[in-house]
């Protein structure tokens, strides 16, 4: 049965029955400041501001995303320096300033300016350090913010290098070139040999595809030769059989790949190539005139044009270490499109390089649909929209990619169907619209903030308790890495050897069963790793990641699951997870103590 979702009074509100959680605590008095510092266990990021300029709003969507991704142990606040004596030196400052406070009110980092990438890397680094400190795996480095105590002339001078400063790396795409192994070389069966020569010279093949060009495609590709004496013959030759088109790069950055490949190709004329560069590809494999075996882009601009011609949906990889943070956005396949085109649309999403992080089938009443789309209440299409959105089940997806929000909206095309068909005929809204239905078939979040709100609405963050059992304890680092790759945040962890009483609490639903004695003996035989995992739909997601209880069944049905990879039998099946929110909270209390008093807690709905 599809999940029934009830919606609040506006798109900014969360699921009914839950407290509205404020992202940043607002601190305005000395007492509030002291209480704030003493009450937080983890990392607290404080936006310190002067009253005349106000807090920094530009970072809210970033902080909201980090909170969703990192989970418990990360807190945000704003503090007005004018009214708090401990923040006196931050008064009358216009530049945004963020204080990173570890457990107990210890200052561990300061970031000035609304620098998104720097703030994100600093949050992740300091939260990871603080978790290690709290787990007894590291020592905290406390600093003093002396910059504002220095004379102005020193502030204007070149700062000393800070070995703890995270170097900001500008996101950079790899450089590339496009090569075409022409029809004569392909038909002669030497394409693989030419590819081997390319790779032996240090070229990296990013993508390759064999295809036969049509007359129109060949004429368009070689348009610069139009009007020349050999144009028609060139087009006929390039359409005489399949060619192999290859996207090449080299090294980490691809720098100089266009020029390097031109050197490997040799002169355009085969005879000249044989005379001047006998080891070049054209000298070795060309036969004359334009039948010179291989084409290569003559500039980075040409490479970009040719890549767009052959592979318009290919996403050029980033230079390692400069990758931008992965974004998430909400996608909705509306009822009519979901009923008719679900598989085709999902195929288009995968082709465009999106990762489907989460998905859920949803049904709404017309009233709920009206609440969700309340911002459109005054629009002429409001009644049609809410009628359609309540006409049957639809699919919501969390899509992940480095440019997920903009990339998904580009793929969708214009909101008005007629405009999409006219201006973007290949867009999803053009391809999958229904005759006679004025509502377009798909939805996408408008920006990062909207994406955060909408994802939280459909996929609210929750906690679960995960246990790595004694037989898999030695593989804990590998398993934790897989957990983090799946989008979970490990907000707390603890290694422990269980007592009989703890085992009874952990497996309370099994303590009267025949196998409980064997289970109890095994679980007390060595150390286990307990973790609190935070993510949207964490309970369901973790249970899916574990796989079937019986590892032999897991190996048949879910080969990538943790129990398939690390389990031995039904008892020694590597990992355990809680089955409900109530059980998770019970175990968190037992193994990690009472939650902090101002930690946001869910309140059960009706």
Automatic annotation (TrEMBL):
Gene Ontology MF: a single term: nucleoside diphosphate kinase activity
InterPro entries from the UniProt entry: NDK-like_dom, NDK-like_dom_sf, Nucleoside_diP_kinase, Thioredoxin-like_sf, Thioredoxin_CS, Thioredoxin_domain, TXND_domain-containing
Family: Belongs to the NDK family.
Name this protein carries in UniProt: Thioredoxin domain-containing protein 3
Gene Ontology process terms (BP): CTP biosynthetic process; GTP biosynthetic process; UTP biosynthetic process
Organism domain of life: Eukaryota
Pfam family, one: Thioredoxin
Coiled-coil intervals: none
Residue ranges of every copy of the Thioredoxin domain listed in the record: 1-132
């Amino acid at each position: 049965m599809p999940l029934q979702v009830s919606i609040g009074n506006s798109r900014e509100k969360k699921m009914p029955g839950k407290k509205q959680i404020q992202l940043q605590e607002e601190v305005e008095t000395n007492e509030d400041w002291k209480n704030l510092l003493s009450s937080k266990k983890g990392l607290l990021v404080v936006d310190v501001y002067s009253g005349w300029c106000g807090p920094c709003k530009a970072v809210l969507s970033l902080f909201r995303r980090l909170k969703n991704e990192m989970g418990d142990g990360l807190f945000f606040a704003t503090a007005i320096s004018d009214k708090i004596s401990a923040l006196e030196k931050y008064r009358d400052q216009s530049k945004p300033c963020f204080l990173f406070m570890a457990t107990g009110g210890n200052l561990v980092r300061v970031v000035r300016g609304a620098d998104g990438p720097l703030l994100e890397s600093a949050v992740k680094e300091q939260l990871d350090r603080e978790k290690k400190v709290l787990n007894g795996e590291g020592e905290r480095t406390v600093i003093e913010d002396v910059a504002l105590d220095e004379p102005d002339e020193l502030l204007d001078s070149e700062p000393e290098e800070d070995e703890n400063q995270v170097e900001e790396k500008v996101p950079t795409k790899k450089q590339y070139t496009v090569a075409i192994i022409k029809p004569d070389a392909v038909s002669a069966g030497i394409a693989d040999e030419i590819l081997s020569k390319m790779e032996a010279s240090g070229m990296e093949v990013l993508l390759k595809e064999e295809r036969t060009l049509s007359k129109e495609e060949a004429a368009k590709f070689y348009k610069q030769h139009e009007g020349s004496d050999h144009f028609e013959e060139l087009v006929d030759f390039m359409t005489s059989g399949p060619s192999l088109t290859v996207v090449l790069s080299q090294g980490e950055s691809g720098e100089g790949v266009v020029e390097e490949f031109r050197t490997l190709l040799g002169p355009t004329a085969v005879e000249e190539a044989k005379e001047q560069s006998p080891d070049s590809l054209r000298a070795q494999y060309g036969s004359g005139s334009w039948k010179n075996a291989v084409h290569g882009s003559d500039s980075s601009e040409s490479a970009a044009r040719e890549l767009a011609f052959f592979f318009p949906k290919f996403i050029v990889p980033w230079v390692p270490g400069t990758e931008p943070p992965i974004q998430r956005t909400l996608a909705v396949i509306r009822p009519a499109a979901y009923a008719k085109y679900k598989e085709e649309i999902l195929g288009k999403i995968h082709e465009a390089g999106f990762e489907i992080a989460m998905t859920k089938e949803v049904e709404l009443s017309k009233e709920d649909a009206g609440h969700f789309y309340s911002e459109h209440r005054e629009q002429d299409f409001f009644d049609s929209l809410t009628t359609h959105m309540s006409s049957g089940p639809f699919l919501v997806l969390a899509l992940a990619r480095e440019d997920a929000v903009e990339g998904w909206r580009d793929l969708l095309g214009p909101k008005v169907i007629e405009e999409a068909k006219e201006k973007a005929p290949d867009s999803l809204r053009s391809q999958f619209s229904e005759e006679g239905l004025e509502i377009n078939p798909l939805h996408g979040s408008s920006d990062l903030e909207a994406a955060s709100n909408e994802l939280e609405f459909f996929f609210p963050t929750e906690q679960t308790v995960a246990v790595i059992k004694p037989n898999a304890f030695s593989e804990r680092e590998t398993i934790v890495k897989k957990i983090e790759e799946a989008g979970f945040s490990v907000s707390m962890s603890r290694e422990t050897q269980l007592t009989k009483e703890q085992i009874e609490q952990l497996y309370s639903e099994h303590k009267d069963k025949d196998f409980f004695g064997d289970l109890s003996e095994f679980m007390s035989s060595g150390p286990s790793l307990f973790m609190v995992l935070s993510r949207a739909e964490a309970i369901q997601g973790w249970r899916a990641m574990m796989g079937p209880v019986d590892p032999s069944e897991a190996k048949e049905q879910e080969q990538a699951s943790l129990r398939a990879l690390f389990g031995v039998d039904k008892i020694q099946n590597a990992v355990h997870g809680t089955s409900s929110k109530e059980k998770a909270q019970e175990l968190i209390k037992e193994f990690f103590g009472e939650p902090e008093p101002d930690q946001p807690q869910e309140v059960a709905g009706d």
